[in-house]
Write a structure and sequence with these properties.
Helix content: 10-25%
Number of strands: 9
Radius of gyration: 18 Å
Shape: globular
CATH topology: Immunoglobulin-like
Mean pLDDT: 83
Structural class: alpha+beta
Largest sheet: 5 strands, mixed
Strand content: over 45%
Order of helices and strands: HEEEEEEEHEE
Strand order of the largest sheet: 3-2-5-6-8
CATH architecture: Sandwich
Number of helices: 2
Amino acid sequence: MFRRSLLFALFLCLISNIFGQKASIHAIHPDYAEIRVHTSIAWNPFVTISEYSNTLICDENGEFRQDIPLQSPRVVQFETGIYQAYLYVEPGYHYEVELPEYREKDYADQISPFYQPVVVPLKVFSRRSLATKTEIDGTNADRS
């Protein structure tokens, strides 16, 4: 009986990994041209082990687009310059967000053991379903 339960639990874990969805995030700000943005999802808010981690560099226009694999809603953190921005993300949606004005971390902050990043929420311009392409307010979205 215990073996069957264990196998069933393992099967459910595998199925949930297979049927996980993604979320898509897009942002553009001219200050972020060629700037590195580190994206992470904390596995546990009290322990700094990441469930997901990725670093990307914005293009010459300061634009980035990122697909994040999700199985449930999560808080996604974006670290760049002095900021630690965050966004509550649900699987199956595309988010258009506004980045704060870029401010580079100076050398004193980089070496200081007491440095704390400026924590800011990202402003969401629009959220639309990836499946139906419908905006959250119910309008049809033609942009990508």
